[in-house]
Amino acid sequence: MANLATNFIGIRSPNPFWLASAPPTDKEYNVRRAYEAGWGGVVWKTLGSEGPPVVNVNGPRYGVIYGADRRVMGINNIELITDRPLEVNLREIKSVKRDYPDRALIISLMVPCDEDSWKSILARIEDTGADGVELNFGCPHGMAERGMGSAVGQVPEYIEMVTRWVKTHSRMPCIVKLTPNISDIRKPAEAAKRGGADAVSLINTINSITSVDLDDFAPEPKIDGKGTHGGYCGPAVKPIALNMVAEIARSPETRGLPISGIGGVTTWRDAAEFMALGAGSVQVCTAAMTYGFKIVEEMITGLSAYMDRKGFTSVDQLVGRAVPNVTDWQFLNLNYVTKARIDQDLCISCGRCFAACEDTSHQAIAINPGRVFTVKDEECVACNLCVDVCPVQDCITMVELPKGTMDPRTGIVVGDYANWTTHPNNPMARAAE
Amino acid sequence: MNSPQTPGVVPHRLNGGRIAANFSDAQLPFDQHEARVAADRCYFCYDAPCIAACPTEIDIPLFIRQILAGNPEVAAKTIWDANIFGGACARVCPTEQLCEGSCVREVAEGKPVEIGRLQRYATDAGMATNTHPYARAPSTGRRIAVVGAGPAGLSCAHRLAMHGHDVVVFDRRLKPGGLNEYGIAAYKVPHDFAQAEVDWLLRIGGIELRMGVELGRDMSIDQLRQDFDAVFLGIGLQGVNALRAPGEDKGEVRDAVEFIAGLRQAQDKGAIPIGRSVVVIGGGMTAIDAAVQSKALGAENVTIVYRRDQSQMSASGYEQDHAKHVGVRIVHEAAPVEIRGNGVAHEVQFAYTETTPEGLRISDNGFRLEADQVFKAIGQTLGVLPDGMSAMGGKIDPTSLPAGVWVGGDCAPGGQDLTVTAAAQGRDAAEAIHAALMGRN
Predict the structure, then answer these.
(1) Do B36 and A354 touch (CB under 8 A)?
(2) Catalytic residue among A139, A380, A386, A390
(3) What is the average pLDDT across B312-334?
(4) A350 CA to chain B: closest CA distance, Å?
(5) What is the pTM of this model?
């Protein structure tokens, strides 16, 4: 069994699976049980300033998107930061960390945007024994209206300023949690790095309305007939998160900045994908909220089995391994030509490939007598939609045309690597040297 | 109180609770969640094979998608647009030979989308709205006679009424519904579903029922042709084949269809006498229905004997499995050669058969089965034909029809003696009649 031990900015955990700052990490009872279940780390639910804690709504805090079998595809929430007194949280953090010294314990923080507030809370948490802090610049609902959360995370200058305060007033490792509710994720990441952040974590939740009640005409979740946007998370947001992680991992300005990956991690495979795109640890919330703490067992055994298959002995061999293969569109090889091939033995003649191609793509699939579907190479642009909609795995595959053969669609012989930057149709093309 | 072991042909072999359970829904309807999960399995195939496999060509992928999207009553309308007997067909269609048999997931995994049960879910939801979803076109002033209030006749009548024609439906029985009311096993259509469906269908208006009226006895084709603008014949198959074996005339040797009809009409099913040992001869749905219901009444030994091999049985595999599951024994490749008994049946002598290039051959070897009752389920026949018409291949020859007369259902060629083909032919005849009367093709 592969060793999953993780060292993320000096914070050690027996595996890279951390529970994200959220309801599952709200209190000692939960966190102890999470550690017992096998979670490598926990980011304690966001603490606020001393004084009367925030209050939550007393109606639904969550909205949901279901698959047909009520499979949870995505959840949004309008819950705020911890609504328990600061002293209680600090006492519990200290107690838990003392009993679980081998597990990562990071404290999420969100206080008003002034240096004294940050200096004051950092002083309070220094002696809990926690391994680090995560600055919550991400929550898109509620707290943002009060100038915190994503209201900070959407202004790179604020991120840099607050991060610098934290690094000035604390020796603890500092992770900056980023909001995806921006136009270019690299800018806040760069700001965090300039401020001295040891790492970034992303993504926080996405602004969302999960559904609309068509009888009451109100958005869900609905509180006394009204609703507000909440933060969306779960499997549905994973593709967005993967891209944002990759953007930071490959950007020259932020390359090498450690990343804790968050966003729809549900199985070992999701985690491995985040790690391959540069995440040194992953954080999980929706999967735990859907299935309970036990799901970490699948993640641990699954990632371990995968690493064994690959011959990886350390997670470091996986982290970032796919980053070199993330590139700009302009560098994709335009002389890589493939054609769809339908395996007639596997085909069940549903015709979804035909409907998709005929109605919405390139009219490159023929329907023959007996519901036999075949690809017209002279029309196929290799868009992959037929593969995507085919219900049978591996029934339709993309076969590469070898170099030197002619593409019957274009009449052009497949040549060596060439991309848009030198393409004759590109007005900006640079002449090949 | 009798038991399954009580000798002879007696009622009340099982207590009332057992009888009620045996005649309740054989297959429970889907609840909302089950329906959505089942609907989600549909691939929404292009030019879906299931549509082509349905004699009424219901747009199955569309109605399933309407269920998935939370609109079962809209799905019901999609079904009824093609087949006004969608509710009955959901219960009695041999789906494994039709829509589900051609489902691509049957091909892929041996587990088709459960189209029949989804259709029942949708049509039940549609009927539960207690509204009729069709309105009549303005009156055409044309009157049409429909003979036979079965699926073919009523399907035809409904479509004609929709087009604004006035329809009079005649039937020799006392209740409408035809085989849906008299010919289908009680456990397949509990809660008086067949009558509820007919009542719902008639709510379109413009359809008058005249029950207890028999063609040939109370009226003639010529008279109907004079009195109406068009005539549709959906008279079904009224005769039954004979065994042509010695002893067929003994007591307790009965037609299975009559037994099934009696059960359907019985208020107290437990009061129906049933043999301790029952032998059913035949290989179709009627044989299965008679055998399963004999078992449901408490017969100890029930055996279906079919003269050809299993692959030739017209009963669906699902029906055969269901019969075996309730304890019916099915014997293949044996034919009855004599029914013995002193006045009433006591045993049946069978001979094994062999399939040869010249046809079925009766061998010298055989066996005897004890039988207090023998049910013949070896096929139905046209019976006496209306004046001037001739038969071809056991069906009314359409070329022998006088002008202004259409035909459909089990008495007509081109079907498989199924409710669904009757519904299709009735509907199509209505469209043909409408086109002919209104001067369109």
Answers:
(1) no
(2) A139
(3) 95
(4) 5
(5) 0.91
A226 touches chain B (CB under 8 A): no
Q: Give residue A430's pLDDT band: very low, low, confident or very high (50, 70, 90).
A: low
User: Considering its fold, how many domains does chain A have in total?
Assistant: 2
**Closest partner residue to B47 among A67, A69, A351, by Cβ?**
A351
User: Which residue in chain B has the smallest CA separation from A356?
Assistant: B46
CA distance A65 to chain B (A): 14
**pLDDT, tens digit, 9 for 90 and up, residues A2-27:** 899 999 999 999 999 999 999 999 99
Contact list in A for residue B40 (CB cut-off 8 A) is 67-69
Cβ within 8 Å, pair B43-A69: no
A351 contact residues in B (CB cutoff 8 A)? 45-48
Q: What is the mean pLDDT of residues B147-169?
A: 98
Give me the pLDDT at residue A423, please.
93
Tell me, what's the pLDDT at A68?
80
What are the chain B neighbours of A391 within 8 Å (beta carbons)? Answer: 43, 108
A433 in a domain, yes or no? Answer: no
Q: Which class in CATH covers the domain with range B32-128?
A: mainly alpha
pLDDT at residue A141, as a whole number: 82
How far B75 CA sits from the closest chain A CA (Å)?
17
CA distance A394 to chain B (A): 14
Topology of B143-238+382-437 in CATH?
FAD/NAD(P)-binding domain (3.50.50)
Domain that holds residue A391: 329-422
Query: Which pLDDT tens digit goes with each residue over B43-99?
Result: 999 999 999 999 999 999 999 999 999 999 999 999 999 999 999 999 999 999 999
Interface touch A352/B45, C-beta < 8 Å: yes
- Considering only CB atoms, A69 lies closest to which of B37, B44, B107, namely B37
B46 in contact with chain A, both atoms CB, cutoff 8 A = yes
Mean pLDDT for B369-381 is 95
pLDDT of residue A429: 83
Nearest to A351 among B36, B37, B46 (CB): B46
pLDDT in tens, A216-267: 999 999 999 999 999 999 999 999 999 999 999 999 999 999 999 999 999 9
Domain ranges, ordered by start, for chain B: 9-24+240-376, 32-128, 143-238+382-437
Is A347 found in the same domain as A300?
A: no
pLDDT in tens, A378-390: 999 999 999 999 9
Identify whether A76 is part of a domain: yes
Catalytic residue list contains A139: yes
Q: Do B40 and A68 touch (CB under 8 A)?
A: yes
Q: What is the pLDDT of residue B345?
A: 96
Identify the CATH number of the domain in which residue A358 sits: 3.30.70.20
The per-residue pLDDT of chain A, averaged, comes to: 96
CB pairs under 8 A between A and B: 39
Name chain A contacts of B104, Cβ cutoff 8 Å: 348-350
**Does the fold of domain B143-238+382-437 match that of domain B32-128?**
no
Residues A336 and A317 in one domain: no
CB contact, 8 Å: B105 with chain A?
A: yes
> Which H, E and C letters describe chain B, residue by residue?
CCCCCCCCEECCCCCHHHHHHHCCCCCCCCCHHHHHHHHHCCCCCCCCHHHHHCCCCCCHHHHHHHHHCCCHHHHHHHHHHHCCCHHHHHHHCCCCCCHHHHCHHHHHHCCCCCHHHHHHHHHHHHHHCCCCCCCCCCCCCCEEEEECCCHHHHHHHHHHHHCCCEEEEEECCCCCCCHHHHCCCHHHCCCCHHHHHHHHHHCCCCEEEEECCCECCCECHHHHHHHCCEEEECCCCCEECCCCCCCCCCECEEEHHHHHHHHHHCCCHHHCCEECEEEEECCCHHHHHHHHHHHHCCCCEEEEEECCCHHHCCCCHHHHHHHHHCCCEEEECEEEEEEECCCECCEEEEEEEEEECCEEEEEEEEEEEECCEEEECCCEECCCCCCCCCEECCEECHHHCCCCEEECCCCCCCCCCCHHHHHHHHHHHHHHHHHHHCCCC
Mean pLDDT of A191-197: 98
Q: What is the ipTM of this complex?
A: 0.87
Look up the CATH number of the domain holding residue A69.
3.20.20.70
- Domain with residues B9-24+240-376, CATH architecture: 3-Layer(bba) Sandwich (3.50)
